[in-house]
Amino acid sequence: MKRLFLLVLVAWVLLPRSLRAADTNHNFARWEAEISAFERHDATNPPPTGACLFIGSSGIRFWKTLATDFPDQKVTNRGFGGSEIIDSTHFADRIIFPYAPKIVFLRAGGNDLWAGKSVAAVFSDLQDFITKVQARLPETEIVFISLAPSIARWQQHEKELAVNALAQQYIQGKAHLHYIEDYPMPLGPDGKPRPELYVADKLHFNAAGYQLLAQCVRHAWPKISTP
């Protein structure tokens, strides 16, 4: 049944873009203040070019230990909480391309599902993100860090698994594209998210949760070929 479900989704996302429902009501303006703040910071403290850029929603925004988690790498955090994949795509001209990163790590998609987007629509947005970044930065490595479940949004965990499966299948074997699986990371013996890894909202990781996330990325890093 799951295989049939995924095959139906793949068939849907392979339809021409013009035949899919366009997201015409998305409010990009809600992020203008935050994106402008990044630009003001960059004007006086420009991030290094050729660094490793982490972008996405609050899972990236609240990752305050990036620099210490990866001390041998130059890292830049451009997460903005509550954002969807489409937001990172939209603002790429302002918070991705100016840095000419050697690696772009994207962790987003959970908010998209929570807002009511279908699995196929989220996957389509991921494809659009990859297409836009590769058009401008063809030699940059793009890494999708998979969706992971949370206590607060456990009701969508099967959709998260479906997004992950489509993303992994799409990325596999393609040059400059990589997939990091972290879905099982926060699960306990009962198959449910472990409460001790989350802050009070039961949605975002605490320090222990980020330590595990860093381990996932650190383990995969040697497999990511860099220029």
Quick structural summary:
The chain has 227 residues and is of the alpha/beta class.
Task: Give the arrangement of secondary structure elements.
Layout: H1 2-13, H2 32-44, E1 52-56, H3 58-61, H4 66-69, E2 75-79, H5 85-90, H6 92-95, E3 103-107, H7 110-114, H8 119-136, E4 141-145, H9 157-171, E5 177-180, H10 207-220
Parallel strand pairs: 1-2, 1-3, 3-4, 4-5
Features:
5 strands, about 230 residues, Rossmann fold, 5-stranded parallel β-sheet, alpha/beta
Mean pLDDT: 90
Structural class: alpha/beta
How many domains? The number is: 1
Second rung of CATH, namely the architecture: 3-Layer(aba) Sandwich
Question: Secondary-structure element sequence?
Answer: HHEHHEHHEHHEHEH
How would a textbook summarize the main sheet?
A: 5 strands, parallel
Query: Could you give the distance between the termini?
Result: 41 Å
Task: Give the CATH class.
Answer: Alpha Beta
Task: Describe the protein's architecture and organization.
The termini are far apart. The chain is globular. Strands 2-1-3-4-5 form a five-stranded parallel beta sheet, with helices on both faces. It has one domain (2-10, 45-223): Rossmann fold (3-Layer(aba) Sandwich). Helix 9 (157-171) links the parallel strand 4 and strand 5 (177-180). With 227 residues, it is of the alpha/beta class. The protein is built from ten helices and five strands, in the order H-H-E-H-H-E-H-H-E-H-H-E-H-E-H. Helix 1 packs across helix 8 (119-136) and helix 8 (119-136) packs parallel to helix 9 (157-171).
